[in-house]
Write a structure and sequence with these properties.
6 copies of one chain form a homohexamer. By secondary structure, chain A is α+β, with helices and mostly antiparallel strands. Chain A has one domain: 2-Layer Sandwich (Alpha-Beta Plaits). Helix content of chain A is 32%, strand content 29%. In chain A, strand 2 and strand 3 form a beta hairpin. The radius of gyration of chain A is 17 Å and the shape is elongated. At the A-B interface, helix 1, helix 2, helix 4 and strand 4 of A face helix 1, helix 2, helix 4 and strand 4 of B. Strand 4 of chain E pairs antiparallel with strand 4 of chain F.
């Protein structure tokens, strides 16, 4: 087993995808932001009346996903076809779950784009609420699904979360 | 209690820091990447012989921290004075812990820069090892310490982790 | 009278501000997007129920203002202290007026940052509504006020608009 | 009628273009900068002897158009095939008219790229001449034509200007 | 003979590539950094024990190549398929030779991407060693080979170096 | 002697400048582009009649210098106060010499900004003339002078070139 981002001599490289096939590809990633119950209430209230934390965070996630190849050194620049970011309130665990879905018709997959979207969304939630809750924790950033391309389908097993 | 990134009408804004004092400020953030034991061994081996995953990830973290205001919508552009990224292998939990420290002499804090450094470092580890281990999970991204500025010192309590 | 962005030989240059004084500076710019009355209604409705065009456009304006020195070739990179973007519905003229205010404590003014904020905000409104109204027109992008610095205060005369 | 940049629940998203056809597409946008007659004379003189305002502004417009997806939150990253920026002096109205044409062979249109090119060109003219004329006004930024793609041809009616 | 980056009137433009064919293209560029023998020894030692100058410089070169269209005003944005950067120690001449190879399946060539990769790699070597040797000189940045596209193959003649 | 961009364990870091003094600093860098005599004539002619290669290249150099911290991994983000780029035709050697001067009032020097300005200027000359002369060579990129800061003045000895 080896890491494809290095050649035989151990030098980092951008993997050559020029022989890959153009296919429809999709990746879904997830992550969570744990916070105090009062912070969560502020966010829920703000979405309707006082300020839209999640609306801003969603835009940050979408824009960051477009910059993935500028952030992750060996990622290929890609023209993503679609990015969506969704939120789920888990009141029992006092956390907001984030899900990002990215699609492309291209030579290589968009796992990193989906993971970057989730990360930037989570970091923006932190930034916008940190005056109220510096102890928030971002966790469980992971790939849920991946479709298309030679390596085929990947679906995270439920027990893994 | 309110979120400072919104005005009274709930509109997002970049908080006015022009009346703040220029002081020395520092922030320390942490995070972890959980992986298969074989992946961890590949990374440890690579650092010496075959390819330097952590060396590349550290550079990604430092460069991303410099782009914080381009990623997080309401962050101020800042001239950070120093960024360091350190790694710790936790073999029992099969995970790599990341710690980023950012300093500045400026008008506002660098918590987000430290958190962005940790996130981009972790995402780059994922990217470089994903051909071997798509199931890696990024967790526990959090602020450990913050010094300087009007809101004073913040130190995360040990039990919080 | 001469243009300061050129030297005596007519070569473009970034004007030397190293001898200028650090002072508090502020600039206010404005602009408008003219549209069909039905488009305006869609935006107003969306802000509350179906989708927040102006919330997204405001974020675009704030983020673009931070990139001013990357867009305008001879602008100095600056650490702006505050950016706000406000909207006013002018139902009679079927247009949305945009006002951006930028502050800094620095060596040079922020007129361009305010004008870039207005422009990017207006372009984002166009982008988000163009499926409904390709004929929208962006107009009257202008500097309203400027304070601080050697050239002193500038206030646009009311008749000018 | 609805705005395609939002889903049914009103959440902003990058529209999925993965099912669209790759076709040749073209967009033409226009805009104007109104100024004092003396400013216009300075620009005209400079183009030949003292400094090339329009040459710098054209480069700014071309470079900004390439950054469109970085400026407009829900725009797709695109590999534009061609960008041109032209100027026309309207001495009677003391204004410079700007026209930008952008082409692509791709999945989605380049209206925003053409509008961004015009806007950045106009803002750069403002920046380079603002030491002489702070009262300049940027107006009439609009789409003139659009060709290719499912929504077909759009040509602005002459009376619309 | 004429320069294709200008139209007949001498105005700069991004050349229209929409009628070009999608083919496999490749470019190889080279360059050198001349330094004191002691600096070269520090770099060689560092690569194994104390700090990896060339590892960091390679990442800088790869990341800069991805930003080529953001640096070179009339370059087309491209989705490069592969980038590699190699080093050769020339002890007699006390210099490090850099070679960058870039591939793409696209409408236009990647010569500039290869030249930018070499330049950013060389500049990063300078930056990382300048505390020890401010007199380093970067030279002989040139295109070695180019394949694919209508203008066909270019191979630099050996005597040219 | 050691390289300051690595800590004692050999890990790359952004050097801490927070204890440095804010002083006026200046750096001058140079470089050359060697070309066929016919190419040089095209450039000289173009500057007046057919297209302004050097005008575009100067803008590219100024804009790239502002992005230095985004290109060179361990460079600090800086607010440069002034950037100028000058050209000299050396007809005997059939080459264009480039000189860039950068100033700042800040905590760290601007040598890299001056070297990046020269490099991007040279690369843009290559790009704009490559349809006529693929064999151009960029050489002698070096620091000529540096003033300000603790390490004091550096002036390259004439014999060094």
């Amino acid at each position: 087993m080896k890491l494809t981002h290095f050649d035989k001599a151990g030098k980092a490289r951008m993997v050559d995808v020029s022989a890959k096939k153009t296919t429809q590809r999709e990746a879904v990633a997830a992550g969570s932001v744990c916070m105090k119950p009062t912070t969560m209430r502020l966010i829920k209230a703000g979405a309707f009346e006082k300020g839209d934390v999640l609306g801003v965070a969603r835009i940050a996630g979408i824009m960051a996903a477009k910059k993935t190849s500028d952030l992750i050194p060996l990622c290929h620049p890609l023209n993503v076809a679609s990015i969506t970011v969704d939120f789920f309130f888990d009141e029992d665990k006092s956390r907001i779950d984030i899900k990002a879905t990215v699609k492309i018709t291209g030579l290589t997959g968009v796992e990193m784009e989906a993971l970057v979207a989730v990360s930037a969304t989570a970091l923006t939630i932190y930034d916008m609420c940190k005056s109220a809750d510096k102890g928030m924790v971002i966790s469980d950033i992971m790939l849920l699904e991946k479709r298309g391309g030679k390596s085929g389908k990947f679906v995270r097993r439920p027990s893994a979360k």
